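Format notes (please read before filing issues)

Several people have asked whether sequences and C-alpha coordinates are stored in separate files. They are not. Every record keeps both together, in the order shown below: the sequence lines, then the C-alpha coordinate lines. Line labels are part of the format and must not be stripped during preprocessing.
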Amino acid sequence: MRLRHWVLIGLVVAGSLVAEQLVHHEHEYWFTGIPGFFVLYGFVGCAAIVSLSKWYGKLWVQRRESYWEERGDIDPHLARTGTADPGATDDGEATTGEAP
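Then the structure lines:
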Protein backbone atom coordinates (compact mmCIF):
# COMPACT_ATOMS: atom_id res chain seq x y z
CA MET A 1 0.00 0.00 0.00
CA ARG A 2 1.09 3.51 -0.60
CA LEU A 3 2.01 5.93 2.16
CA ARG A 4 -1.15 7.96 1.66
CA HIS A 5 -3.27 4.86 2.31
CA TRP A 6 -1.50 4.26 5.63
CA VAL A 7 -1.92 7.91 6.56
CA LEU A 8 -5.63 7.75 5.73
CA ILE A 9 -6.06 4.57 7.79
CA GLY A 10 -4.22 6.23 10.70
CA LEU A 11 -6.48 9.28 10.50
CA VAL A 12 -9.60 7.11 10.49
CA VAL A 13 -8.38 5.18 13.54
CA ALA A 14 -7.43 8.40 15.35
CA GLY A 15 -10.82 9.92 14.50
CA SER A 16 -12.57 6.81 15.78
CA LEU A 17 -10.66 6.97 19.06
CA VAL A 18 -11.50 10.65 19.50
CA ALA A 19 -15.18 10.07 18.66
CA GLU A 20 -15.33 7.22 21.16
CA GLN A 21 -14.11 9.53 23.93
CA LEU A 22 -16.65 12.23 23.06
CA VAL A 23 -19.64 9.92 23.46
CA HIS A 24 -20.37 8.85 27.02
CA HIS A 25 -21.96 5.45 27.50
CA GLU A 26 -22.27 2.99 30.34
CA HIS A 27 -19.80 0.13 30.35
CA GLU A 28 -21.47 -3.21 30.90
CA TYR A 29 -18.15 -5.00 31.27
CA TRP A 30 -14.80 -3.75 32.56
CA PHE A 31 -12.99 -4.25 29.23
CA THR A 32 -15.46 -2.14 27.26
CA GLY A 33 -14.18 0.89 29.17
CA ILE A 34 -10.66 0.52 27.72
CA PRO A 35 -10.05 3.33 25.22
CA GLY A 36 -9.94 1.92 21.70
CA PHE A 37 -11.22 -1.50 22.74
CA PHE A 38 -13.82 -1.75 19.98
CA VAL A 39 -11.40 -0.46 17.35
CA LEU A 40 -8.87 -3.12 18.32
CA TYR A 41 -11.57 -5.79 18.68
CA GLY A 42 -12.88 -5.08 15.18
CA PHE A 43 -9.41 -5.09 13.64
CA VAL A 44 -8.36 -8.34 15.33
CA GLY A 45 -11.69 -9.95 14.39
CA CYS A 46 -11.35 -9.00 10.72
CA ALA A 47 -7.72 -10.11 10.60
CA ALA A 48 -8.68 -13.44 12.18
CA ILE A 49 -11.47 -14.03 9.66
CA VAL A 50 -9.15 -13.32 6.73
CA SER A 51 -6.32 -15.46 8.12
CA LEU A 52 -8.56 -18.41 8.97
CA SER A 53 -10.28 -18.23 5.58
CA LYS A 54 -6.97 -18.28 3.73
CA TRP A 55 -5.72 -21.19 5.86
CA TYR A 56 -8.95 -23.15 5.36
CA GLY A 57 -8.94 -22.47 1.62
CA LYS A 58 -5.39 -23.65 1.15
CA LEU A 59 -5.80 -26.69 3.38
CA TRP A 60 -9.21 -28.03 2.30
CA VAL A 61 -10.73 -26.18 -0.65
CA GLN A 62 -8.01 -25.58 -3.23
CA ARG A 63 -6.47 -28.38 -5.25
CA ARG A 64 -3.38 -28.42 -7.45
CA GLU A 65 -3.88 -28.42 -11.20
CA SER A 66 -2.42 -31.92 -11.38
CA TYR A 67 -4.77 -33.25 -8.69
CA TRP A 68 -6.62 -35.69 -10.94
CA GLU A 69 -3.44 -37.09 -12.51
CA GLU A 70 -1.83 -37.62 -9.11
CA ARG A 71 -4.85 -39.53 -7.84
CA GLY A 72 -4.93 -41.71 -10.93
CA ASP A 73 -8.56 -40.82 -11.55
CA ILE A 74 -9.89 -39.99 -14.96
CA ASP A 75 -10.73 -36.45 -15.95
CA PRO A 76 -14.14 -35.56 -14.45
CA HIS A 77 -15.26 -34.06 -17.76
CA LEU A 78 -14.30 -37.28 -19.54
CA ALA A 79 -16.25 -39.32 -17.01
CA ARG A 80 -19.35 -37.16 -17.44
CA THR A 81 -19.41 -36.70 -21.23
CA GLY A 82 -17.30 -39.53 -22.59
CA THR A 83 -14.99 -37.14 -24.42
CA ALA A 84 -11.94 -35.15 -23.40
CA ASP A 85 -13.17 -32.11 -25.37
CA PRO A 86 -14.50 -29.54 -22.85
CA GLY A 87 -16.61 -28.00 -25.67
CA ALA A 88 -18.50 -31.25 -26.25
CA THR A 89 -22.01 -31.87 -24.97
CA ASP A 90 -23.38 -35.06 -23.46
CA ASP A 91 -24.40 -36.38 -26.89
CA GLY A 92 -20.83 -36.08 -28.19
CA GLU A 93 -21.48 -33.10 -30.45
CA ALA A 94 -19.03 -30.20 -30.21
CA THR A 95 -20.50 -26.81 -29.43
CA THR A 96 -19.27 -23.71 -31.21
CA GLY A 97 -21.24 -21.15 -29.26
CA GLU A 98 -23.15 -20.04 -32.38
CA ALA A 99 -26.89 -20.32 -32.81
CA PRO A 100 -28.08 -22.63 -35.66
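For reference, the curators noted about this record: DSSP finds four helices and no strands in the chain. The CA atoms of residues 68 and 76 lie 8 Å apart.
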